[in-house]
Amino acid sequence: MGTPNFASPKTNYRYHSWAIVMGDFSNIRCVVFDLDDTLWPCEPTILNAELALYEWLKECYPRITAQYSLESLREQRANFALLNPHIAHDVTALRKQSLAELAQKFDYPMSLANDGLTLFRQHRNQVDLFDDALSTIQKIGEHFKIGVITNGNADLEAIGLSEHFDFIVTAEEAGVAKPDKAIFEYARNRVKLASHELLYVGDHPTIDVLGSSNSGWKSLWFNPAAAHWPEDIMPDAEIQKLSELPGLLSI
After folding, report:
1. What is the CATH code of the structural domain delimited by 15-40+128-248?
2. For 15, which DSSP code?
3. pLDDT of 97-117, one tens digit each?
């Protein structure tokens, strides 16, 4: 068992395998998951999609790749987001419009943006689930309502997971991204439960854990790397493996 990352002399811990439990989950009626880096590793998924997009641009629109490397295309998109904060929460619109900017700059047809986005999303939805992700989702879904809140644009239907969830909320749909309280309230209204009846499971200390905690939800930090907790507000629980979650919920 690892050493607790957020020890305090005033804290009463309960342990389930490696998991550290600080909160009371007896009132939970719905479990809501983050996606990227919670159900599957994000970086290799996005990198593979961006590499596929770059090779397509290189073959079909070579004037772009003659001037831009893969890394400089990422910088171009980041700069575009800074100049267009009204769509910064919507990663699909952001990627599409940044491609449209490139099409205009290099005098290519605007169809580049739609076609490039379609190609990117095909590869973006080719994910490798963590080994215990599907079995955990299935077990949780037998006892609780189960949902998703994501800032990303993964398509659970294309991935083959949509049937396991009662609802899916994206930043694009809600008009705001985590950690903003508004997206958690949007999801709460969707499921029609009180905040204290909702548990959010995510990997990011600020975006996921603080976002849900500040919205009155119970929060669980998925921490497979056993990293040190970096914030002042503590999560209600911490796990290293998704398979530890059912035990925390007494199922």
Report:
1. 3.40.50.1000
2. E
3. 999 999 999 999 999 999 999
Residue 182 makes CB contacts below 8 A (sequence gap 6+) with: 174, 175, 176
**Which of 159, 165, 162 is CA-nearest to residue 201?**
165
CATH number assigned to the domain covering 42-124: 1.20.120.1600
Cα dist. 171→176, 182, 243 in Å?
5, 10, 27
Q: What is the mean pLDDT of the chain?
A: 92
Label each residue of 108-160 as H, E or C.
CCCHHHHHHHHHHHHHHCCCCCCCCHHHHHHHHHCCCEEEEEECCCCCHHHHC
Residue ranges of domains in the chain:
15-40+128-248, 42-124
CA distance 93 to 171: 11
pLDDT digits (tens, 9 = 90+) for 112-152: 999 999 999 999 999 999 999 999 999 999 999 999 999 99
